[in-house]
Amino acid sequence: MKNYKDRHTATSNSGIDESTLPLLQKASFFFFLIVSLSIVLNVILALLIPDRPSSLHDSPAILCIQGLFALGFLLATVQQSLAWMGPALLLALVPFHLSSHIASMYSLCAFLIATVELYRMDFFKRAGLFKIVMMFVYYGSSIALVGITLSVSVIEIIIPILFILLSFLFLLPIFQGKRQISILRSRQKIRYKDLNLSERETDFLRDCLDGATFKEIATRHHVSESTVRNTFAHIYHKFGVTDRASLLSQFADFDIID
Question: Could you report the per-residue pLDDT of 46-65, keeping only the tens digit for each?
Fold first, then answer.
């Protein structure tokens, strides 16, 4: 079981937990589609309506920058070692979208998604408070600098910064370990015969996972309760746990089949 568990809790070559990689790659692919669609629509509109009012985001230079973002997201999708590029590119998109609107929901969504992805990558495991503070300072500074550059009113700059501050206060307990962000994961299937257990240990474990108490297991198999406890001591040793709760927790993400 230890070897089996190790295979499913290992990290990839990129240093990211293998259960997190698919989430990062799917998110990167989604943003690759979004950015690519934006480029295509802008080009189509420019061809169909050449006299339409243009904006900064319609310029060839900006379209080329968007193309680089799309390429980056695509690389983060197909290359596991580059999965970290996903949240990095999302953070880089923040000032880009703020230039179109100082309270852009696109930039806010990109920032929050990048934050969650970095959390799933254990980026905040060390010096977490400092890192999350720096991220929110980066976002607030981006709003202020872009707003000043575009000559936006002070009120329009202050309101999104206050909103970001409230978001920071809400998320702070998460990064301090007082709350958790739960992500539903697909359950792995394993067989009892792969667990390296004796027949008795397998029967007792099956009953335990079905919710039976030690006393109920003893009655069911016509043995003493001390025999059940001694058997589970061997099971605990094989799985590297110390009690029933830890054993059940270890099997929480698995479906065990005969």
Answer: 788 777 665 555 677 778 88
Residue ranges per structural domain of the chain = 18-175, 188-257
Closest by CA position to 256, among listed 168, 201, 195, 169:
195
Amino acid at position 235, single letter: I
Q: Higher-confidence residue: 1 or 91? A: 91
Q: What is the DSSP letter of 212?
A: -
Burial of 32 (0-12, 13-18, 19+ CB in 10 A): buried
The fold for domain 188-257 equals Arc Repressor Mutant, subunit A (1.10.10)
Report residue 120 as tokens. 């799933």
Cα distances (angstroms) measured from residue 146 to each of 89, 94, 95, 152, 156: 18, 10, 7, 8, 11
Reported as a pLDDT band with limits 50, 70 and 90, residue 105 is confident
Tell me, what's the pLDDT at 192?
80
Sign of the Cα pseudo-torsion (69, 75, 78, 80, in order): negative
Q: What is the pTM of this model?
A: 0.58
Query: What is the rounded distance in angstroms from the CA atom of residue 214 to the CA atom of residue 226?
Result: 9
* Measured torsion, CA atoms of residues 76, 32, 23, 75, in degrees rounded to the nearest 10: -10
Q: How far apart are CA 102 and CA 107, in angstroms?
A: 9
Residue 175 token pair:
């990064």
Average pLDDT over the chain reads 81
Q: How far apart are CA 31 and CA 89, in angstroms?
A: 10
